[in-house]
Design goal:
- The chain contains four helices and 61 strands.
- By secondary structure, it is mainly β.
- The chain has six domains: 123 residues, Sandwich (Immunoglobulin-like), CATH 2.60.40.1080; 73 residues, Cadherins (Immunoglobulin-like); 73 residues, Immunoglobulin-like (Sandwich); 137 residues, Jelly Rolls (Sandwich); 74 residues, Immunoglobulin-like, CATH 2.60.40; 135 residues, Jelly Rolls (Sandwich).
- The longest helix has 25 residues.
Length: 652
Amino acid sequence: MKFLLNGLLICLIAILLIAPIGLGAWLGLTNSDQDNVGNSATGEPTDPNLTLSDSEVTFNIGATKTISATTDTESNSYIFQWNTSDKSIVTVKKGDTQSVCELTAIGEGTATVTVNVIDVSKFKIIDSVSCEVTVIDSSIKFSVSEVIISLDEGNSASVSATAPDGGVIAWGSLDESVATVDANGVITAHKVGQVYIIARSGNVEGKLLVKIYNSLFTLEDTKQIGVGASESIQVNGTLSEGAIWTTGDERIATVDQNGVVTGVKAGMTTVKVSSVTDDLTASCVVIVKGSGAEAFELVSGKKAEAAADPKNWYFLCESNSVTIGSIPTMDNGLISLDITNVGTSGANFFYLRYQTDEVGDVIYKHTLYIYSEVDNALIQLNGKDNYLSAGLNRIEIEYTSSVPKANDPYQIKFKSAGKFFVLPIFEEISRIEKMVLSESSYILNTGMNNTVTLTATVPGQDNPEIEWVSSNESVCTIVNGVVTAVGEGSSMITATCGNLSATCLITVEGETPIEGEELTSGNKSATLADPGNWFYLADGKSKVLSTPIMDEDGNIHMSVTNIDTANKKYVYLRYQPESAGAKYKVTISVDFAGADGSVIDINGGDAGVVSMTLKNGTNTFEFEFTSDTKNPLQLKFYAIGGYVVNATLTEI
């Protein structure tokens, strides 16, 4: 019972410390707002007698209107919160002050807009009032969104319009020298240009844009040709005399003044034809692929299959909710995709995967050409989001390949459905010779599972001579690649051949694993919300061998097996003291198995950032900090290795 009461007391203190910040964030308070709240009176709130400037509002789709709220009493602890019952009808947006709201009419119908007055000092809504909003559509509706007339194909076009009350439409033109319109909505063009025609009914009117050209023409959306091949681009309509053809990148494709395009090298570029007479330009995306190979269907495969099969592309529908119209094909380097559906989160996307080389890291200049039929399509390229525009997209990055089976292959994740042409080009910049071990981390125990054999792969050597070293022979020894467990702990195995080296983190447990409490994975917010407890976070592609454990003596046992330095993502331990605003002396002890010179950054409260440089064995560090409710104590790990961390906080 005593334990339960203590636990409830801790939770209550945490809520009292954190709730003001959480509520302030929820309501969109600035720091100055929260300062004002902290200075508010602590007595019972009085009735503010909240009123609105309007109890009913009626306005047209697309229009905006401002309403305001007032109270008889004023207080720094009052917050105005606006909401709408239906965002598809009307949206709300705070104005220059919290008591002012801008309404925007979205769609026909009726919705309720409510404003709440919240007294932050008491964490409660003390008054509410509502306004009924009716959105109508009182605009004139045209049968088309715009009118395009080509003089060489006739000089007229017909359009109809409907008034909101079904009334008679009266037509007019803003410039009758360009075009006129009769009482039946028949438009007659007189010369090249643009003009608005007007439709009126009573007090309501609408405008419709009319564009007039001598000749109207478009090009086919895409043209596929091989390197060295030449073909004419298809013109739809009549091309004006004197129209000029240009290409966006002559290194990929050239075009003559007859519209004949020639492929120079693999890639995509935009070819345009422009008419000064018509003030009109049309474009076509030219896709230049290789030549001579038969088109084939891609094979569906997971990461491991793609990594084990260099120079081949794989695709994957990650779940049953991902569907395709046809099997993706590759034609001389060009991949054709028809993705009919993807999910919105989790394992619900479409992937293309490729392994570039067999052994060793290679740095490539990677140019990815994508033609998208849909606008704003989202892809993730090796973990980074890219939004595609409709048409040609060109993404260029440096990409370092991985060793098959050791790391993830190159990957494009499609988070949007649509039809796409994908042309990836890898140009090798440099090759890095790299030794690779059969394991990068491994767990042994002092019982039956007490050995593992490591093998090393060295570029260009079939039987390399390897020198093996264990950083802590009281934990494990190694002879000719055979690791034997000796005692509990962590040790870094290093293999060396000439100027090449590779490491494997060995963690040795007793016949039964370390007993203790597994830490919970959580970010800063989770840590702040649960003071007195330790959290960990493996961010991005950073990894730990298994969930960190805190033993009965307060030691945290953790093995870091990967650090995502490319994306600045690391492994963290975090702790929030139970007493906010208290000053502490912090003693950090770290037993470390890894490379000397590895670093941990420590920060929290008002301490700033303190760097701790490690060596193999025991490391200790002391510093002072004052806790607050925004920044927990944080240890940021920059290196692969085994760690036993003990942190002692003594209140000063």
